[in-house]
Design goal:
Elements lengths: L1 H27 L11 H22 L10 H15 L10 H31 L2
């Protein structure tokens, strides 16, 4: 049963990354408004990415996800860096700055709930000893 959930978690993670990259490219190409514009379509996309990240996070803290206990510190460091980078504007970079800005923002929306749940689990594990 755990093997099945591991595959589901892998697919959820891959789908989340793929959707975030596609959405980021669409934002860079001005096909959709940026995710923080308040429009309905970007809000649904952001909610979908957040939901995927939340589900992947639940599976990770239950031990059925793609992120193992040994990989959690590396993942958390990467997540913190990605979320911090998303606060930076790359729009001034010629040709691909808008695309990079959109991709990083969409990835941060996907990764934030996942990282938050893993952080809560880490705090719980430290506190219960």
């Amino acid at each position: 049963m755990a093997e099945t959930w591991g595959k589901v978690s892998s697919w959820i993670f891959l789908i989340g990354i793929a959707v975030a990259v596609i959405v980021g490219l669409a934002i860079g190409a001005d096909a959709i408004d940026p995710l923080n514009s308040g429009g309905e379509t970007p809000a649904y996309i952001a909610a979908f990415l957040g939901f995927l990240g939340f589900v992947a996070g639940i599976l990770a803290i239950l031990g059925m996800g793609t992120i193992t206990k040994e990989e959690m510190p590396t993942f958390m460091m990467a997540a913190i860096i990605l979320i911090a980078i998303s606060a930076t504007s790359f729009g001034n970079i010629k040709w691909f700055g808008d695309y990079l800005d959109g991709i990083v923002s969409a990835l941060a929306i996907f990764i934030a709930p996942l990282a938050g749940l893993i952080a809560v689990k880490a705090i719980w594990d430290v506190g219960k000893d």
